[in-house]
Amino acid sequence: MASVSAPQMRFVVTVDDPGGLIQEIATLQRVVDFFGEEGAPASFFVIPRGEGGWQLDRQEEWLAVAQQAEQQGHDCQLHGLDHAGYEFGPYPAFIFGMGGQDPKERLRLAREEAGHLWRRDLYVEKLETAIEIFENAFGRRPQTLRTGALSQTPELYDAVADVGMRYVSNMIVNPRGWEYIGGRYDTDVDWDPDVPPTPYYLRQAVINLPMISEYAWKLTPEKIDKHLALAIEDLERVYAADGVFILICHVQEVGADHPHSRVLLHRLLEAAREDYQVTFMTVRELIADIESGEMPVLEYKPRITEGGYYSGN
Ligand SMILES: [Zn+2]
User: Residue 11: pLDDT band by 50, 70, 90 thresholds?
Assistant: First the structure.
């Protein structure tokens, strides 16, 4: 447990999937209100396009909620373009393995289906389209990219630099959260040694803001204590590592009719506040700390495996 005089750990709540994938305004509003009441501003990773011709810059009512949220201290960033298919490469092994499937077989099938599209020039085109829609909607460019289902190949990060973005938030420190989602509580999966729990350089011009894990996906009342225990353990470890705790959760779960995700997150945020005296901040504020030099960025040379940044490959 942290002592009061220790430096404060930064804690960043990020929320995926509002927009093209989860279009309901009431769901977004419920999540905005929840994190507002918790005193922990959220950074929403917004999907620019979705089914039924949904497009971010044409959704006035939706945008009004998002813009009001920003005025209240929340933040919006970019979550891919369509969040469909393998738009920026295959999914990480811990996502391909959900539901007990063989990740290597799923990688093979994904390559067969979309591998010919995993090219730097096509990534640039998609990113430019996504950025344009975001810019039309918010009147500014997004600072940070996270892709749908964390799809990625190494060329993605060259494309990110090509379009002038400096930040991604696309890798997971502790994939154990996804093992728990699959009910595998006896797993020996642990922190990914290639993903340090603090901002680091992926390319000379691209900084990764790694997420720690997802603890609040499709919970039932019986699961809450186990997932919370993992979250608290990670909190202690990130603190000990002098890292930044970037939480990933999902708008459709935090904003669901059932309260399970909110119950877990309330307890996690309470522990972060009371036992670790964290400073809650948005992605935008974290980037401001990086750019002012207050938050150091690790010089780190990530291992590049055959399939790119694809743990378990
Ligand atoms: Zn997503």
Answer: very high
The Cβ of residue 238 has, within 10 Å, a number of other Cβ atoms equal to: 24
Q: Are 286 and 295 in contact (CB under 8 A)?
A: yes
Q: Which residues contact 252 (CB under 8 A, 6 or more apart)?
A: 17, 22, 27
Task: Name every residue whose Cβ is closer than 8 Å to that of residue 180 and which is 6 or more positions away in sequence.
Answer: 187, 215, 223, 226, 227, 230
What's the CA gap between 264 and 120, in Å, rounded?
Answer: 39
Looking at residue 7, what is its pLDDT? Answer: 66
- How high does pLDDT run on average in the chain? 93
Q: Give the mean model confidence (pLDDT) for residues 132-137.
A: 98
248 CA from centroid of ligand 1 (Å): 10
Res 297 pLDDT > 90: yes
Ligand 1 centre and the CA of 16: distance in Å?
Answer: 5
Q: Given a cut of 80, is residue 5 above it in pLDDT? A: no
Domain boundaries defined on the chain: 10-291
Q: Find the helix or strand (DSSP H, E) in which 168 lies.
A: strand 167-168
- In this prediction, residue 301 carries a pLDDT of 67
CA of 7 to the centre of ligand 1 (A): 32
> Per the CATH hierarchy, to which homologous superfamily does domain 10-291 belong?
Glycoside hydrolase/deacetylase (3.20.20.370)
Q: At 11, is the secondary structure helix, strand, or coil?
A: strand
